[in-house]
Amino acid sequence: MKKNDFILLGIILVVAVLSLGLYTHFAQKDTGMVVITVDGDVFGTYSLKKEQTIKINDSNELSIRGGLADMMEADCPDQICVKHKAISKNKESIICLPNKVVVEINGGEEAELDSVAK
Amino acid sequence: MVVKRRNWILWQNRGIVLKKRVAYIGVFTALALIFSYIETMIPIPIAIPGIKIGLANLIIVLALYKLKIGEAIILSVVRVLLVGTLFGSMFSVIYSLAGALLSLLIMYLLKKTETFSVVGVSMAGGVFHNVGQLIVAGIVLESTSVIYYFPFLLLSGVVAGIVIGIVSNEVIKRLQKI
């Protein structure tokens, strides 16, 4: 075995470990389902994996890109839903109260606690 | 007159050399086939598809170092086709072919740089054999989730490659010039 062989071996091992890490990191986000309910009725269920833009009843527009669901447009006055950050983790949600739209993630990665008050 | 005779002798010699080479390639092919067959009889406890020791690659590496590259390529292709027909399905042939050719290409390139030993070349060959199969699997299945197998196949390719490389090295040292 020459020295270069070991270098090559090292490179291959690094690539193997890296790809393993990359996979476990990204795999989680993709398994979630986006459930949209309007006024309590289920409007539709969509996969986080698939890039798509969903128009909800002419009042809201949701986009799913890169494993994230984000509210792009809404005709509500406060625009809280649009300003909300993109969601991807289990039980996270974006709610547009005036239009009674609830976008929630089922399944997928568990979210960490934002903070704990004692 | 003398020129004619000399040319005739040269042609005769060339004929003998060609016959000799064809005979050698034939022996190598037969060996590769036998090794592949032996491998179908060895059960591997690991459940990942396509994981194998690659005994036939021992012959391929030998051919790479002892025969001309064109002959090694022919050997590889014929081996894959024969093994696929005899011991496997036609479907598996395309995966094997992709893996074998990519592996041979990389090994040839690495050998040309003359910076790696036989073991290193064989190690890379083992890795890229699996990479080639993975790529074809991804294309055929139209899915990127095959990437999941990537780290495991890299590792098994490395291990198999090193083992084959060590054995090849010893054989090459003891073989006379072909």
Protein architecture, described:
- The complex is a heterodimer of chains A (118) and B (178).
- Chain A is α+β, with helices and mostly antiparallel strands and 118 residues long.
- Chain A has two helices and seven strands, in the order αβββββαββ.
- In chain A, 27% of the residues lie in helices and 35% in strands.
- In chain A, strands 2-1-7-6 form a four-stranded antiparallel β-sheet. Chain A has a three-stranded antiparallel β-sheet with strand order 3-4-5.
- Chain A is elongated.
- In chain B, 80% of the residues lie in helices and 0% in strands.
- The longest helix of chain B has 39 residues.
- Classes of the chains: A alpha+beta (118), B mainly alpha (178).
- At the A-B interface, α1 of A face α5 and α6 of B.
Summarize the structure.
The complex is a heterodimer of chains A (118) and B (178). With 118 residues, chain A is of the alpha+beta class.
SSE arrangement:
The complex is a heterodimer of chains A (118) and B (178).
Chain A: H1 3-30, E1 33-38, E2 41-47, E3 52-56, E4 60-65, E5 68-74, H2 80-83, E6 93-96, E7 101-106
Chain B: H1 2-40, H2 56-66, H3 69-87, H4 90-113, H5 118-141, H6 150-174
Label the structural class of chain B: mainly alpha
Largest sheet, strands/sense/barrel of chain B = none
Oligomer: heterodimer
| Apparent shape of chain B | elongated
Radius of gyration of chain A: 20 Å
Per the principal axes of the C-alpha atoms, what is the gross shape of chain A? Answer: elongated
Q: Would you report the number of β strands of chain B?
A: 0
Distance between the termini of chain A: 60 Å
Fraction in helix of chain A: 25-40%
What structural class do the secondary elements of chain A suggest?
A: alpha+beta
What is the total tally of β strands of chain A? 7
Largest inter-chain contact set: A-B, 15 and 16 residues
What are the segments of chain B in which pLDDT stays under 50 over at least 5 consecutive residues? none
Mean pLDDT across every amino acid position of chain A: 82
Contiguous low-pLDDT stretches of chain A (5 residues minimum) are: none
Number of helices in the DSSP assignment of chain B: 6
* Total number of helices of chain A: 2
Beta-strand content bin of chain A: 25-35%
Largest sheet of chain A, in brief, is: 4 strands, antiparallel
